[in-house]
Design goal:
Layout: E1 2-9, E2 12-19, E3 24-28, H1 35-42, E4 50-55, E5 58-59, H2 65-71, E6 72-75, H3 86-96, H4 104-111, H5 128-140, E7 146-150, H6 158-175, E8 178-182, H7 186-192, E9 195-200, E10 203-209, H8 212-215, H9 220-227
Parallel strand pairs: 3-8, 3-9, 6-7, 7-8
Antiparallel strand pairs: 1-2, 1-4, 4-5, 9-10
The structure holds adenosine-5'-triphosphate.
Adenosine-5'-triphosphate binds next to helix 1.
Protein name: Phosphate ABC transporter ATP-binding protein, PhoT family
InterPro entries: AAA+_ATPase, ABC_transporter-like_ATP-bd, ABC_transporter-like_CS, P-loop_NTPase, PstB-like
GO molecular function: ATP binding; ATP hydrolysis activity; phosphate transmembrane transporter activity
């Protein structure tokens, strides 16, 4: 589905790997390893300095950027909503391609387990957990094929993080989404991931199935990381 061929950018050195359809890939590794940089290459928030990225077999830069950002949705650590109501935020992406269907908010809010009457509330007046759910619903409004998640629960308290993780898991399973998630929490990686990419100093040091690779690490670097 997405292929990196000899990609370098900033801290990343010569990365080559594939994310297949329905993979639930977890990018993990020490701080500064290049995980966020790598995630941002998937939807062209960054472009390779060297090498090539393919989306469904096509050079990624040939996919119109609006289409790419709809099909490859991104959810960040902290909600980044626009000023306005929940509904304004949900409509934003689809409106760019005239694909918003009136009433679509009902399903979207249901997906993220928020009550429908929240749609007219100002997003500034919502709790952090509610805002993160709205951010997720806004990403889903674009009907993404791939979901990029950059530590989506790390800014939330334990209970809220657990709820959002549960919502994510259900959505990914129900919609057969392909997922690429950065997380520092190995228990979360075990619960959500099927494939692990362990990053170390800008390289993919080790890959494998999850949770297996966490129980049987091969490289010294991964062993050390898991002991920290
Ligand atoms: N284009 C660039 N050129 C040089 N350095 C860069 C470039 N882009 C990012 N970096 C640096 O590379 C390092 C890794 O960044 P990145 O945020 O991708 O790591 P990370 O693994 O996500 O870390 P964390 O877990 O702390 O979020 C950072 O120190 C960043 O400043």
């Amino acid at each position: 589905m997405i292929e990196f061929k000899n990609v370098s950018h900033g801290p990343l050195e010569n990365l080559s790997f594939k994310i297949e359809q329905n993979d639930r890939a977890i990018l993990f590794g020490p701080s500064g390893a290049g995980k966020s940089t790598m995630l941002f290459l998937f939807n062209r928030l960054k472009d390779p300095e060297q090498g090539e990225i393919f989306y469904k077999g096509k050079p990624i830069e040939e996919v119109p950027i609006t289409t790419l950002r709809q099909k490859v949705g991104l959810l960040l650590q902290s909600p980044n909503l626009f000023p306005g109501t929940v509904l304004d935020n949900l409509k934003y992406g689809p409106s760019l391609t005239n694909s918003w269907e009136p009433g679509a908010e009902e399903k979207l809010l249901e997906y993220v387990q928020l009550p429908l009457d929240i749609k007219d509330r100002d997003v500034d007046h919502l709790s952090g957990g509610q805002q993160q759910r709205v951010s997720l619903a806004r990403t889903l409004a674009n009907e993404p094929e791939v979901l990029l998640l950059d530590e989506p629960t790390s800014a939330l308290d334990n209970k809220t993080a657990e709820d959002i993780e549960h919502v994510l898991k259900e959505l990914i399973e129900a919609h057969n989404l392909t997922m690429v998630m950065v997380t520092h929490q190995m228990d979360q990686a075990r619960r959500l991931g099927t494939k692990g990419l362990f990053m170390h100093e800008g390289r993919i040091q080790e890959t494998g199935e999850l949770p297996g690779m966490l129980d049987d690490p091969k490289t010294k670097e991964l062993k050390e990381y898991l002991q920290e």
